[in-house]
Amino acid sequence: MKYLLYSFLGFILMLASSPLLGQSCDDPVPDWPNVLTAKQVNKFISSNMDRASPSFNLRIKFHVLRETDGSTGPNASDVNAQVAFLSNHFSPHNITYTQDPINFIDNSDYVDNAYVDNLGGYVQFTKDVLYPAHGATNRLDVFVWPTEFGFLAGNAIAIPNDYMAISEVKFAPYWEDHIAHEIGHCLNLLHTHQNYQLSCPNDAKEQVDGDNCETAGDRCCDTNASWNLDQCNWNSSNCTYNDTNRKDCENAIYTPDLNNVMSYAGPCRTLFTMDQRNRMWAELSFGSKGPALLVCNNTLAVSGTIEEGLYSATTSVSCNGVANSGTNVVLSAGSKITFSPGAKLSSGSKVKAVLNGCSGN
């Protein structure tokens, strides 16, 4: 890998130096150092308001576990149907998918030994065995467990992440929105009921009136504060909520949105909000996992306020943006990185220019 050190405008570019089974989603252990703050997301959106809405194309690959003889598990048509369903949820937010060929993993030992009646066993096995053997950092890997081995939930393992596990049972009509829920986690979305279990008072527990919405709960101000719907009284047939017992720390009754994909409202889930969209866009633009999931563009122009993160293209990257103090930026291209007269570094910012480029096209 070659490194280029640039200087311009008087500044030197410096080398930057076991979960429980829920109704619809296993919670990863809540230790996620790369979850974006609302301040980071809002700053990104604000700095890009004068530009055309971004569009993102993610590479996705399904790995289907089956018996050694090829029996059990979903077939190619089942998987393709899930990709089409993802389009329904994400394309309104300018997020699309390019599907790699399906990888059928025919190994009875994998399936039998990993599950063994341990509801969290398949999650750990996915993390320790399947991803190291079959995963890649330049796409979103989806490991699918066959229904025959129990009612396994889905799990994003971490937030954000570049791989996830899910059961074939979640491909059924009642649960078909579940894959969008897990991918939401991979793209930096939290549950709408995040931190509901905390005892009062606690600043991380979201209030119904939204006063602490940027720093509590799911950090999205246009999603209603919610209790875990697994424990609430709601009607899945008409998607209505009628529980008056669940209250926040100010004794206000929760009024959750059963239509939100990041809730636990089973078949009622149909939408992401604007704040959730912005959070996914921010993750895909400069988050710890998102940029590497994208199908590479041949060229990339970086302008406006440059958020911390990786900016890469197959051949060339041009930059005329502004990196504020304390911002660490990596520009990666296959052959050329250029800086226009409008480019600016603030004191304390760091930019690494790498002639490497993105891969995966």
Plain-language structure description:
The chain has 361 residues and is of the alpha/beta class. The protein has three domains: 2-17 and 298-355, no CATH class; 38-186, Collagenase (Catalytic Domain) (3-Layer(aba) Sandwich), CATH 3.40.390.10; 191-271, no CATH class. It is 20% helix and 21% strand. Strands 4, 5, 6, 7 and 8 form a five-stranded parallel sheet that branches. Strands 1-18-15-12 form a four-stranded mixed sheet, with no helix packed on it. The model is unreliable at 1-24 (pLDDT under 50).
Give a brief outline of the structure.
With 361 residues, the protein is of the alpha/beta class.
Secondary structure topology:
Layout: E1 2-4, E2 7-8, E3 11-12, H1 38-47, E4 56-66, H2 76-90, E5 95-99, E6 103-106, H3 108-115, H4 121-134, E7 140-145, E8 163-167, H5 178-186, E9 234-235, E10 240-241, H6 274-286, H7 290-293, E11 299-302, E12 309-313, E13 316-319, E14 322-323, E15 328-333, E16 336-339, E17 344-345, E18 350-355
Parallel strand pairs: 4-5, 4-6, 4-7, 7-8, 11-13, 12-15, 13-16, 14-17, 15-18
Antiparallel strand pairs: 1-18, 2-3, 9-10
Helix pairs in contact: 1-6
Distance between the termini: 19 Å
CATH structural class of the largest domain: Alpha Beta
How helix-rich are the residues, as a percent range? Answer: 10-25%
CATH superfamily of the largest domain: Collagenase (Catalytic Domain)
Count of separate structural domains: 3
Number of strands: 18
Alpha-beta classification = alpha/beta
Biggest pleated sheet = 5 strands, parallel
- Strand/helix succession: EEEHEHEEHHEEHEEHHEEEEEEEE
- pLDDT averaged over residues: 84
Could you say which overall geometry the principal axes of the C-alpha atoms support? globular
The share of residues in extended strands comes to 15-25%
CATH topology of the largest domain: Collagenase (Catalytic Domain)
SS summary, helix count: 7
Uncertain residue segments: 1-24
CATH architecture of the largest domain: 3-Layer(aba) Sandwich
Q: What is the CA-based Rg, rounded?
A: 22 Å
